[in-house]
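Please describe the entry underneath.
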Amino acid sequence: MTKSTHAQSTQSESNVHIAQAGLNKPAFKANVLKWVKGITIPLLLILLCEYLVRFGWIESYLLPAPSSLVDSFKELAAGDLLTHIYTSTWRVFLGFFIGSLLGLIFAIAVGLNKHIEEFLEPTFSAIKSIPSLAWIPLLLLWLGIDEASKITLIAIGAFFPTYTNSVSAIHGVDSKLLEVAKVYRLTYLQSIFQIVLPAASPGILVGLRNSLSLAWMFMIAAELIAATQGIGYLLSDGRETSRPDIVIIAIILLAVLGKLTDSLMKLIENWFLRWRT
């Protein structure tokens, strides 16, 4: 009887594995199809550019053929390319951390206190509309051309998406949840960390993703003006030396790095919001 039971158990387990494999196969095909769709347009654009340049429709000094970018990339990789990537990346993450942290702190204060909101909201709304390039002359005068001015500019760019989305999310928290906090006699900080932030986390995380994207944009603005290293410096150097291949490689690097960091933030968002699934 024991052997028979063991055999039946083994057979049932194998059936389960087969069923799971059958369920995962369509999901795998769907993921592959989604990936193929995602790269279709970039591949078509690459082929179109290659055709237009190779057959003389576009001059190579304006737009190099995509196939020629491989040699240019090898040339940059043999030099200081990794240093440029590292420099820009740590600037973005440091500025993003400072700006988003301050944005979240002010958002909690504004979202939970109407008096603070009346004092700060008009000022923040006005500052938010200032273009990024308008900050650069002032930051250079105050902080010079060193790292402080670049990090500050990136932090400014990362501040407002986090602040705006977080305030909106906190305002959207159900008032009944705050009443529950009073019933259980939670302290102010306990109410924030146990009630407000978990309830507002979807909107806050959206703001953080937007902040990271904007941090990359503000980083380019900072490095185009005053920098000797970074991807923004590569863009400026390619323009000054009439090297469109370097400019295009820098743009591709920005797209890849931006996509990677956004995917990382998406994974973090999914982990924090795993309770929704």
About this structure: DSSP finds ten helices and no strands in the chain. The chain has a mean pLDDT of 83.
